[in-house]
Amino acid sequence: MSTIQDKLSVLAGTIEDSSVSQNQSIEEEKKKVTAVDFKMVTFSLAGKDYAIDIMKVKEIAKAGNFTYVPNILPFVRGVYNLRGDIIPIIDFRLFFNIEVEEKGDDYLENMLIISVGDRTFGVVVDVIDKVIGIQKSSIQPPHPLFGDINIKYIYGVVEAEKRLYILLDIDKIFDVRSPEEEKVYVESMRKQMQARQIKAETPASETQEKDSAKNKANQKTEPEAANAKNEDNELRFISESLLSLKKFVVNEVTDSWVKSRYKEWLEEKGRDNVQLQSESDADEFLAPFYSKYTSSWWTEEYAKEVFSVLPENSAKNIVVWNPGCGKGFETYSLACLLSKKYRSSRIRVYGHDTDLLSVSNAPLMNLTDEAANDWYQPFTMKTVTGEYTFSIEIKDSVMFEYHDCGNTNNLPPIDIIFARDLISFMPEPSQQKLLQEFSEKVKGNGIIIVGENENIELPGWVKKSIGKINVYSKA
After folding, report:
1. pLDDT given for residue 471 in this prediction
2. Dmax of the chain from CA atoms?
């Protein structure tokens, strides 16, 4: 009898424990539901599950018959008129090298309209699934085994509703830094500047220190020495502000110009207003830095200056790299000059930029009537709508590509590099990597052209200034 009672007691306890456990599970599930702090839009590519932060998605659409753009990146399907806004259409399948089944022209693709900063893109995917809410803490770090895409484009992986989703990092895909990354980047560059400043102020030996002190004592009075120190501090603060506000790096490439500009700035603003307080101050300070016609059509006079520095070359193929091409003004201008200079050669100009909207729209550029009737005239044609555009020959010679020149590229040996005002806005490690690539990629008879106020150092290369144009060639 006691045995039966014992069993009943155990059974009752088990039922009670089970009930408690079940209630706890329900409570835990409730907590999970109430703790949702991240929502993602899920979709599939080649049968695999992906997701992106819902805050990046403006809307979902179906569309087809995208307007074709010649000589554009292979993963750009074209452009699309979204209620009056012309936006580039990116096919994620092609971007991630996933094979795409060929469909008819009237087929409607599934599209996510994505907002990245102040830019808008249409992104084509296979199937758009649904919105899922999760706890951000449940997102696990990315791993190369997840997905068929580069790990740098993966924010993390997360399990939800019994499925494993690869969460894509849209900012990395479109090369936009998050506020946190921007803060780390600026702080890193600030520390590098401070280290350089300390190194410059630190004597190499005790003897040098004594000699330096002696020379300073002979050359400067106390007020002069104090004023020089004050100017050094102001320059350091200005350098830090330019980095923080405009990502402009003050080092060997730009140091000479910044010091010269500082003296002008001091005269313009006076000692009390010399510091840069806002982005507009930084823009005003940097205004004289930029090379001529970086964002506009070239005058005939400037075109002649550039034409005069182009080297003699009888090669069948002339390859030109234009990193930081922006909207394409200088890329097309170069293509016209090259076509004139090397009449018997096949011209190929690679225009690279990380502004996907600019490189996507560059092939669609039209000229103003004034430019079309200036020195560009032999290289233009008139469309049925009466607008001026470049000839087929010029358009076929240009290839616009979305590319971060801080990363290695697969270009063939290069005859000419035209990279004005680009290096100064790159982190120092990227600068060094890019300059090394310049040195390795350019042919023996090739040249490198940088910004009017940039100064680079390349072993085995010599600089020649022709007017405002800085040309580097191998010694």
Report:
1. 95
2. 113
DSSP E strand boundaries for 343-468: 346-353, 380-382, 388-390, 398-402, 414-419, 442-450, 461-466
- Bridge partner list, 357: none
Please name the residue that has the structure tokens 């997840």: 146
Token pair, residue 372, equals 């079309």
Burial of 40 (0-12, 13-18, 19+ CB in 10 A): buried
CA distance 381 to 339: 16
What is the Cα–Cα distance from 24 to 199, expressed in whole angstroms? 62
The DSSP result for 115-148, as a single string, is EETTEEEEEEESEEEEEEEE-GGGPBPP-TTSSS
Which pairing describes strands 48-53 and 163-168: parallel, antiparallel, or unpaired?
parallel
Residue 402's nearest CA partner among 54, 69, 149, 65 is 69
Query: How far apart, in Å, do the first and last CA atoms of the chain sit?
Result: 107
pTM for the structure as a whole:
0.60
pLDDT of res. 219 = 56
Residue 207 has a pLDDT of 47
Q: Which two tokens stand for residue 309?
A: 């520095």
Determine the Cα angle at 298 with ends 295 and 300, to 5°: 170
In the 8-state DSSP scheme, what is residue 368? -
Q: What is the mean pLDDT of each run of 10 residues along the chain (475 residues)?
A: 54 54 56 74 92 92 82 78 85 85 81 86 92 92 67 88 91 66 53 54 52 53 61 90 93 95 93 90 95 94 95 93 93 97 94 84 90 95 92 93 74 92 92 90 94 93 91 92
Nearest 5 degrees, angle CA 245-CA 246-CA 248?
120
| Exposure class string for 51-80: b at 16+ Cβ within 10 A, else e | bbbeebbeeeeebeebeebeebbebbbbbb
Nearest to 355 by CA among 116, 154, 153, 59: 116
Rounded to an integer, what distance in angstroms lies between the CA atom of residue 312 and that of residue 178?
46
Residue 259 is encoded by which pair of tokens?
Answer: 């010091």
What count of other Cβ atoms lies within 10 Å of the Cβ of residue 245?
Answer: 19
